[in-house]
Automatic annotation (TrEMBL):
Any one Gene Ontology molecular-function term assigned to this protein's record: methylenetetrahydrofolate dehydrogenase (NADP+) activity
Entry's family note: Belongs to the tetrahydrofolate dehydrogenase/cyclohydrolase family.
Binding site for NADP(+): 165-167, 231
Name of the protein described by the UniProt record: Bifunctional protein FolD
Pathway where this protein functions: One-carbon metabolism; tetrahydrofolate interconversion
Length: 283
């Protein structure tokens, strides 16, 4: 059996059509949804992601403001920008591109963002609401992962979902979101014993570690849904955490890298920005 590909680019394009019409509706009511993205320093990958976010905003009619700051920017100076954006009526979403240079504490920065404008969903208020199942901004990559799983048409409820990786951006929130969809969730990490055996029990396997080829077919149950969150550059080529060719022989569905989770991250950012504007509109 060969796995079916879950095409994140195609799903993104379809979802962006819906986002476009929501933006149109807001504009008809005098509201232009606005996203501010702050980029600190010269990380080349971050620069590409920020440019892609700007293009994506333009594509759906969201007003985009990119603020580029020097790599030596102090934490105080960055916080000052955030405080101003918090009270800027034209901005509905604020995002600080990660990673940040070493002189800046990312938690201090995330804590400074108004939770109502935290379209990344990283603020402790939004994270806490996610934990207790209240309305919040769901972090973009995990939100995209849930949509990709739903795209298979397979129910999440009652399934055993195994997440490998416990980052605050992906692993922990996606585990909570799968739980919210009534999966039975196992969260694995670098100290997990018998990782392969646990992974092989998964109906849904999410791999978010950042290690190329960590997972091959021996980690995968026949017919499982495999979501590869890894973005690794190997010999100038982009590869995930899953050995795609090998995994395809066993998985039922699988996301490619590139073209799987990545495009969905930006699409969910657009959706969260529209949501922020809609929430402000209806109050
Ligand atoms: N503030 C944030 N910082 C970071 C986030 C985030 O969600 N918020 N996530 C990542 C980077 N990221 C968005 O910011 C991101 C990563 C990858 C992609 C993407 O489209 N990937 C493509 C491949 C692109 C390439 O060639 O490099 C794919 O997988 O198809 C989009 C967004 C860390 N920082
Ligand atoms: Mg991808």
């Amino acid at each position: 059996m060969e796995a079916k590909i879950i095409d994140g680019k195609d799903l993104s394009n379809r979802l962006r059509e819906d986002i476009k019409s929501r933006v149109e509706k807001l504009k008809q009511n005098g509201i232009i949804p606005g996203l501010a993205v702050i980029l600190v320093g010269n990380d080349p990958a971050s620069a590409v992601y920020v440019r892609n976010k700007e293009r994506a905003c333009n594509g759906v009619g969201i007003y985009s403001r990119v603020i580029k700051l020097d790599e030596n920017t102090s934490q105080e100076a960055l916080l000052e920008y955030i405080y101003r954006l918090n009270v800027d009526e034209t901005i509905h979403g604020i995002l600080v591109q990660l990673p940040l240079p070493p002189q800046i504490d990312p938690n201090a920065v995330i804590n400074a963002i108004d939770p109502a404008k935290d379209v990344d969903g990283f603020h402790p208020v939004n994270m806490g609401r996610l934990v207790i199942g209240e309305e919040c901004f769901e972090p973009c990559t995990p939100k995209g992962i849930i949509r990709l799983i739903q795209e298979t048409g397979q129910p999440i409820a009652g399934k055993h979902a195994v997440v490998i990786g416990r980052s605050n951006i992906v692993g922990k929130p996606v585990a909570l979101m799968l739980l919210r969809h009534n999966a039975t969730v196992t969260l694995c990490h670098s100290k997990t014993a018998n990782l392969r055996e646990i992974a092989r029990q998964a109906d849904i396997l999410v791999v978010a570690v950042g290690r190329p080829n960590l997972v091959d077919s021996s980690f995968i149950k026949q017919g499982a849904i495999v979501i590869d969150v890894g973005i690794n550059r190997v010999d100038d080529k982009l590869v995930g955490d899953v050995n795609f060719q090998d995994a395809c022989h066993v998985a039922g569905w699988i996301t490619p890298v590139p073209g799987g989770v990545g495009p969905m991250t930006i699409t969910m950012l657009l959706e969260n920005t529209v949501l922020a504007a809609e929430r402000k509109w209806v109050g």
